[in-house]
Please model this.
Amino acid sequence: MTDQTERRAGGGFSPAGSGRLAGVAAVFNTATRIGDFNETILPGAFRDSLAGGADILLLVDHDQSKVLARTANGSLSLRETAEGLTFEAQLPGTTLARDIRALAEAGTLGGMSFGFRVRKGGESWPSRDSRELRSVDLLEISVVQAFPAYPTTSVAARSREAAAAAAGATAALLRRRELEAL
Model:
């Protein structure tokens, strides 16, 4: 394991209903350009970290003074799915949390990100400019207000109405990105 904390950002999120957010903080098997190399997160990269019971935080823009939820008190739940690292959070009744939820409902937020340390033997370099993350210590996930490194992440406010709107907005965003790539 290295002592260097790394941060990665990605796609979006959804309001999850009465004070809730949910989404995908990291997407598996999708290469993203990080500086001078491409990085891919492999399935299982977060498994040991999640099983270890560490207190993982939900922050705003990686700012430790802007805590929205945490696993230690049960307000943040995380799990690996076939898609990636998913989360659901019950937000507190703070001004910051209400503002983030409103931005999520409006589709204004940039996406999600995560802070981590690579575990010993937790990375491989199949080529000089290609890194695979196999095992990391997850420290935090963050709502990103601007530009995430991994554009396929997502965040949304949770409610039936918001979820339907977010699904439409996410589909439109993915179509726009596909067209831009052509």
The first strand starts at residue 6 and ends at 9. The two ends are 39 Å apart (CA to CA). The first helix runs from residue 47 to 51.
